[in-house]
Amino acid sequence: MFDPKPVLAALPNLPGVYRMLDADSQVLYVGKAVDLKRRVSQYFQKSDLSPRIRLMVRQIASIETTVARSEAEALVLENNLIKSLTPKYNILFRDDKSYPYLMLSGHAYPQLAYYRGALDRQHQYFGPYPNGLAVREAIHVLQRVFKLRTCEDAVFANRSRPCLLYQIKRCTAPCVGRISDDDYRADVRRASDFLSGRQSELIDELTAGMVAASAELAFEKAAELRDQIQALARVQERQYVSSNSSEIDCDVAACVVWQGMPCVNLVMIRGGRHLGDKRFFPDNADEMDERGIVEAFLLQHYGRQPAPGVIYVNQPVDGVVTEALASLAGHRVAIVSNPNGERRVWLDMAEKNARLSIEQRLSGQATQEARLAALGEALGYENVERLECFDISHTMGEATVASCVVYDKGAMQPGEYRHFNISGITPGDDYAAMRDALNRRYARLAAGEGKLPDVLLIDGGKGQVGVALEVLNELGLNDLPIVGVAKGEARKPGLETLILVREQKAIQLPKDHPALHLIQTVRDEAHRFAITGHRARRAKARTVSSLEQIAGVGPKRRQRLLTRFGGLKGLAAASVDDIAQVEGINRVLAEKIHAALH
Hints:
- The protein is of the alpha+beta class.
- 46% of the residues lie in helices and 18% in strands.
- It has 20 helices and 19 strands.
- The radius of gyration is 30 Å and the shape is globular.
- The relative contact order is 0.07.
- It has helices spanning 5-10, 36-45, 51-59, 71-85, 132-146, 153-156, 164-167, 181-195, 199-215, 219-238, 290-304, 319-329, 341-379, 430-446, 462-474, 514-548, 555-565, 568-573, 576-580, 587-596; strands at residues 16-21, 27-33, 62-67, 101-104, 112-115, 124-126, 250-258, 261-270, 273-280, 310-313, 334-336, 387-395, 398-408, 411-412, 418-421, 455-458, 482-486, 497-500, 505-507.
- Strands 12, 13, 14, 15, 16, 17, 18 and 19 form an eight-stranded mixed β-sheet that branches.
């Protein structure tokens, strides 16, 4: 039993961060305090703690503290620890992916590309965008208007004639000199102006060029400029949000709590253009008000992502949060909670979208709960919440991959999916592949490493289900329900037979049964994930093997070739002369490589 008195007696009356740990030294909670002694003592002196906090306090086995120089410094440290430790009882905004950017490369003929990752100063980046679709839509517009190249460097360097994009007027083919250097640089500058929000000035420039071309009787050039102007005008018309100041870069974050569910809607505006929305549903936020959720969101989100100079929020924020946010961002960040004019409209729209997102999620949850209840009733199982499904994919026994997908908390959980590369079996033996995957998955779960499902789904008939029964019984998981999903006549959806192996029976649900819809969703996801893993493994194996079969190309030369040309596709597009320029490759070997790949 943890005795807090010695720990509390030794705590200083200084700002800092405290960490509550359980008996296994796992961090339960991270908090910051202006006065460590007073704040930590409240957990053991107050009698009105919420049930969740009382549960946490009962699990405390030790407390660690770190003194900081100020409350703002403590806030930054708290945020860093929450991100790295993801404590069980802290409010968490889970957003592990980096945000995508649109990139104009720093080459002599800059490439227009989708980019995600660390930023390099030699290139120009625009964004971040809330999702990949927004970036691809921007690239589509820029291709249509400015016709910049989007091909990889290895392809660009080895073209001998224009590609299809030139034929459909989506590229000016700088690779084969169909556009002058000055004209291509002008197109790059205009694209940069467009992405920076200077659309009006750009349209004025293009209009002046069109008038000048008409005056010089260069009607083809004038028509081309006219088409660019019209395309840009349509983009402006489509803007969901536009600013009177085209130079503005800001974010708008609105938090709404409705029917007990919190949601933060984030709007990204760059160069006065609305790039899209992103919704966040935090964990462990039950006891926090909207202001606390907004503050936690600002610190966690902008601890991972670059912060713009201005952020509009729908809750007042403590000054110490602003100070900490500036420290995280490395520059001054203005947080405005009561904007006027068009900024108020942006904030109102963000609030409305947050509310709609909550309504949609609640509606979806109700549907999923109904499906789970129907599944439990149809199969005769109680308290069904978590499902795991396995599938096998290969091509004539080549590159066999098993997939395991997880459905839990009313949704698929991609972060818990697993691929199993299968080897050491007879090619095409699906039963052996299933046995291997199940052993690898459930040996760990049987030992207590992870969470067991309430139902195990197997995409297959009696043979695969029989293998699953043997494996689980060998591991001592004799009570785990197993359901085989056998395809129906002509493999038509809705005709599946469900094999309940432990109950020694098979059932067929009506096509419109909600339980069947849930099973089909999970089964189809397992199938998709298995195929994805199989194709990736097969492509990797074939890429390497095609070069391995060429006499004289060992591991070092193979690596140099793939690095020089950006992969097998680039190498296949290279000429004999280009291949011969690679270190260690003479003319004779270059001809042999070229012949082997064609």
